[in-house]
Amino acid sequence: GENMRKNDNFDGDIEGQMTIEDIFEPPERLFAVSRIFARAKKDMSLAEQKTFICALSELKFTEKALTPYVKLDKKVLAGILGIKSDSDHLSVDLYDNIRDLPKHSYIEINEKDLDLHSNGFVITALTRFKNIIRLRFNEEYLGLFTGLSKDYITMWSSDIFEMASVRSVQFYEHLRQITDTRKQVNDVGLGIKPLKEMFGIPENGKGSYMRGKGGFDRTNFERKVIEPLCEDLAKCKMINLLVQPDGRYYEKVKRGSRVQGYRFYWTISEHPAVATAAETREIQERVDANPELLKVAKDIVKGEKKPKNRFCDFPQRKYSKGVPKPLPGK
Question: In angstroms, rounded to a whole number, what is the distance separating the alpha carbons of residues 123 and 313?
Fold first, then answer.
């Protein structure tokens, strides 16, 4: 019902939402998802993923949502999705790209989390109005994105808006899940099989990167899967992939002369933690003593200045050529 309703006379109240000026610079907003959602299996297209993230970035993840509805400006969303239609066709072209978002928002909860949540649709309706798209969240799942106090991961919306494939979004989310913020450098080794499972690549047959006689087409796999991932993540602000001595963003893990998988190294640019009452008083005292601090803080909030990367001064790590760490799935 509501999924197909249209009311061209409704202007929609989009006060406080993104504006047309943001089209040329993807909005950079921090959003969060519960680890339960991060671990769940999802099946959205890239355009649907970006629309969903756009909606999440409108929610305040530390506060409980007062309404299941989120409004998105059509022109801004079209800019994020790279839709360059003229004004006469923009609304229709945008809708054609995201009309199935409610149907594709179905998530399969990880087996370890089934006692806490069940499978289901996160978005129950997508409605078009004159200037906006309105999404309705399933209230059963709002707790996975709002009122979060623990067991969640944060991401920058602008990182995902710049990505060229769903695989990059999946990999970015995976790295955020396994990041240990106590470490200056994180690393993970992934075998061919786990990578295929992560990206929904078949084990054999068409699209499996297996040659006719059963051999693995490693060169093509790296060119079409691994390198595009690295190109997308190299643009990210939150995850900083480290370049290896051979100039790649990954290290080949070998057994003898045969490549068994790939290892990635990265640092993380974390957002500032939410201040406690005592910390807030201390900050206020510092601001009173040095008013310039307040101006810097306001510039950061407005996006005119980036929060300092706590690892920006960390020199690139030099890795030994010793025995590689074992890979999962092998």
Answer: 42
DSSP state of 246: T
Q: Chain centroid to CA 210: how far?
A: 30
Rounded CA separation 231/244 (Å): 14
In this structure, which amino acid lies at residue 256? G
DSSP 226: I
Strands (E) across the chain are located at 6-7, 30-34, 69-73, 106-107, 120-121, 123-129, 132-137, 152-156, 186-191, 239-241, 251-255, 258-268
**Which amino acid makes up residue 29?**
R
52 Cβ contact partners less than 8 Å away, ≥ 6 residues apart: 44, 101, 105, 122, 123
In this predicted structure, what is the pLDDT of residue 1? 39
- The identity of residue 122, as a single letter, is V
**Which tokens go with 226?**
């691994």
- β-pairing, 30-34 vs 239-241, is unpaired
Pairing of the two strands 6-7 and 123-129: parallel
What is the pTM assigned to this prediction? Answer: 0.73
Sort 261 into a burial class: Cβ within 10 Å, 0-12 / 13-18 / 19+: buried
Please state, for a pLDDT cut of 70, what percent of the chain lies above it: 74
The letter for the amino acid at 213 is K
At 73, list the tokens: 């400006």
